[in-house]
Amino acid sequence: MDLQAVYEQYSEAYEAGGYAAAEPFARQILTQTNKWWRRGDGTSQVLSAQMRYTIARASFDRGEFDAASEEIARGLEAVARARTVKDPRYAFEGLMLLMTRGELEAAQSRHDDALGTFFVAAQLENESDHPLWFEAQTNLLLAKQWALQGLGRYSESEQAANEALALASQHEPRLVPTALERISMLRRLTGGSGDEHLAAAEAILTAQDARPADRAALAFNQASVALQRGDLDAAERYLSESEQAFLGLGDVRSAVSALTGYAEIARQRRQTSDAIAAARRAIARSAEVGDPGTSAEAYIVLALALQDAGRIAEALETLDEALETAGNSRMERVRIDVNRAVLAYNVGVQLNNAGSAFGAAAAGSSFGSAAGAASGDGGSLPRTRDEAFALAASIAVPAAFASDAVRHELPPGEIRERWTREVSMRLADQALQALTALGRADEIVDLLEHVAASASAGVGGAPDDAFERANAGGPPPRIRSFPDKDGPIWWAIDAAEERYGLRPRGEETVTAW
Which Pfam families does this chain map to (predicted)? Predict the structure, then answer.
């Protein structure tokens, strides 16, 4: 085998078609490098690690997580052997493999594990003065940003994106648009616009000789923005461009995300049957490629389409399934619960407007296809207006406290203000609506006291040491709204911590003032 010739083919294939195109050549090279190690050659292990990385990325893109993990492990073994013979190039290959392991963990919603892996990768030093070191470091920051975003640590996530932007601007201009797109996405996720960042990314990418993967990612982000604005034709065009580009690169995982977009476009066009069918396809495909985030999004779109079709029982069951899919991804669980609470509340409104006769007739309809008590943890369909509003409250109030816990983890500044205005206060309002419909006056008073105290903790001037600690980043105290008894809303504080792993209030208590 002419290894140099095959390596050139490998490089050309990667530039033209990404990891999937380069994978066959990587496997050819491995057959040769495996023989070299018997002579204790460091180059063979550096090449082995590089080829294992390529195969791992190709497997990852296809959603073959077990195969990707195996290749990463074997690649790291090659890195260890290269280090044993003091080949300084081990550091770069180790960085690339560890970064991929972290991204694989993040894709499985194991964001804390991913951050730990990225921390280990960041300790490696550029011992060989590798020409791609700064590109790798920029991608490592972007990977870290994604994991932090998944945990709801939005301020830290934006900081990582800004660090990636600064590093790319200085050393790797090709990645500047990617960093700008991430900042744009975070702004939108926390209630802002992000339009200027996305426009800048598009302008820079247009001026560059961009790789297909970069253009595909930009098109997908443009589709997301167009969909938010209701420009369905533009969204459909961008989705098609993104999907075809990702498929051309063998990146099936990224391409699957477009299916959910098509389903939402059909739903907004009131093509309900098409939306339901498209959402079901997106759920099936995202499950095949092991993408819980895309699965959860597809479940939400399916639930909304089923609600549009009047199939309320199926819609609630679908959101229960979405919770199972989300696993331990706390922010996905909050997003799903917001939709569950709205749907349950709407059921209560419909039952209330229709009166008891409708409730009786519902036993034979889609409303009554499942019976039983309401529970914030999912389960049966409410049969009466009180059951529906109780279900909405059991979901919305803990979710409101969870969103407030995210707010208290954010340092004072623009992101915190946007999150408070666009997310926390809206969820608190949703929770108050459900409690008001039930006439639970003590809980309403208690929730309002906690909301008011939380606002005080965010602006300073708080009246005691517990709130001073909250200003420093710890959870604020529980409010005792009624003398000599536990707060009527404290159940929701405990539920928020149990469901989402977020600590909205500490154990200390202060009396309402």
Answer: TPR_8 (PF13181)
